[in-house]
Amino acid sequence: RPGLYIVATPIGNLGDITVRAAETLARCDAVACEDTRVTGKLMKHLGLSKPLRRYDDHAGAAERERLVADMHDQAIALVSDAGTPLVSDPGYRLVRAARAAGIAVTALPGACAAIAGLTLSGLPNDRFLFAGFLPNKDKARREALEAVAGIDATAIFYETAPRLVKSLDAIAAVLPGREVSVARELTKLHEECRTGSAPDLARHYAAHPPKGEIVLLIGPGAAGPPPGQDIDALLREALASAKP
Ligand code: SAM
Questions:
Q1: Interface pTM (ipTM) of the complex?
Q2: 11 CB under 6 A from ligand 1?
Q3: What does pLDDT average to over the chain?
Q4: What is the distance in A from the centroid of ligand 1 to the CA of 212?
Q5: Beta-strand (E) ranges in 109-212?
Q6: Which of 61, 146, 151, 232 has its C-alpha lying 20 to 30 A from 131's C-alpha?
Q7: Given the CA of residue 191, which atom of ligand 1 is nearest to it?
Q8: Of all residues in the chain, what percent carry a pLDDT higher than 90?
Q9: Is the CB–ligand 1 distance for residue 81 below 6 Å?
Q10: What does the pLDDT look like over 64-81, one tens digit per residue?
Q11: Beta strand extents in 8-134 (DSSP E only)
């Protein structure tokens, strides 16, 4: 069926391709991708050969228009280098343009590093905020951390290995006392997930410089007394009303 198929691909372990993703890549007319070499390897692994069309949300207005025009009579699969398209990856503008043009759009869920990291971390997961890459510059990084300070949820960031220790130091300064997780090389041979305080993790990774891909998670702050209320008075009141 013609349309746009948003296809999640593995984040390291090729066994994580879904049956539906493989079937869709086998049946589609073309694959829109970030890097034709990376997607070419995945297609080869699946024993498939399809036209690969490079697509990037920022540089690709003309290619976007051509892709959307072709979706009227072709099945186009959108993949990124790894994981779920649109999650810190291209595709948002393509999906918007396809929807605006009345194209059938469907999503094929699968691997996503943010969700894999969250489920592995042991941090509270009833509420979480995915905030993309933690900025590289000191001031912007501090501001991004301050922005999640008041949010009662686990915050998930994408991070790179060379910046990890600096980011952990910044978390220690801006969000002291938080439980933090570093989820590294998920689904791969050297998968690792460490949860602890930011200063302890910073010391560990300063001594053992990390390699590979990283999800950095920050647990929610401890729930304090409701603003403007005296917790001792509330406790006295509760104890008094509990007396027989
Ligand atoms: N769309 C992808 C997804 O669904 O997870 C994310 C793409 S983003 C450009 C790449 C970042 O995702 C990496 O820098 C890293 O922070 C994170 N990432 C991707 N694969 C990972 C893995 N196997 N283990 C840990 N983090 C990973």
A1: 0.99
A2: yes
A3: 93
A4: 10
A5: 128-133, 154-160, 179-184, 192-197
A6: 61
A7: 24
A8: 89
A9: no
A10: 999 999 999 999 999 999
A11: 30-33, 52-54, 75-78, 105-108, 128-133
For the ranges 17-21, 49-53, 228-232, the lowest mean pLDDT is seen at: 228-232
CA of 114 to the centre of ligand 1 (A): 7
Probe ligand 1: pick from 17, 215, 216, 217, max atoms within 8 Å of CB?
Answer: 215
Q: Which atom of ligand 1 is nearest to the CA of 185?
A: 24
> CA nearest 200: which of 223, 177, 174?
177
Owner of token pair 């997930």 = 193
pLDDT at 60: 76
- Other beta carbons within 10 Å of 63: 15
- Asked whether the predicted pLDDT for residue 156 surpasses 90, the reply is yes
How many other C-beta atoms lie within 10 A of the C-beta of residue 55? 24
C-alpha dihedral sign at 138, 143, 146, 152 = negative
- CA 125 – CA 102 distance, rounded (Å): 36
Instruction: Report the predicted TM-score, pTM, of the whole model to 2 decimal places.
Output: 0.91
Cα distances (angstroms) measured from residue 28 to each of 6, 19, 51, 77, 176: 11, 14, 10, 6, 50
Q: Which residue, among 80, 91, 140, has the nearest Cα to 113 in the 3D structure?
A: 80
Q: Is the Cβ atom of 91 under 6 angstroms away from ligand 1?
A: no
Ligand 1 close to Cβ of residue 201 (< 6 A) = no
Q: Are strands 3-7 and 30-33 parallel, antiparallel or unpaired?
A: unpaired
